[in-house]
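Bug #77: duplicate submission created two jobs. Keeping one. Sequence:
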Amino acid sequence: MITDKTAEFIQYIESGILCACDVGSKTIGTAFCDERWSIATPYQLIKRGKFAKDKIKLQEIIAQKETKGIVIGLPINLDGSEGPRSQSSRAFAKNIEDLGLPILLWDERWSTQAVERAMIDNDVSRAKRAERIDNGAAAYILQGAIDALIYL
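Kept job's structure:
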């Protein structure tokens, strides 16, 4: 089940660990939250290669964490429209649907910029920002989603 509606997603999952993915062309940032949906934490960066290998790696991570659902960042344009990056995220969601977990597509318009701004404010070097930005964005996406889910 893939949806962009929190009310529909929560019907399939009432609690449990969630995984977020910030899907890029070169990497997939991942983050996880605790069972009570209180805080999202950056986890592991998956360097993109062949999709089959990326999917196996994601499946391994999800199994280790006993994940109950997946949140995927959906890059929406500022005017609310969807472009090629959105289509890529939707295709990624469709391709991992057979993992058997409910998937929530979450608007990630400002995730990367917000995380990068926070890193700059904390004097994180450019090199360290580059290696941490996607996992940070995944945590930002997940935190937004769980904040919305707990108020349903």
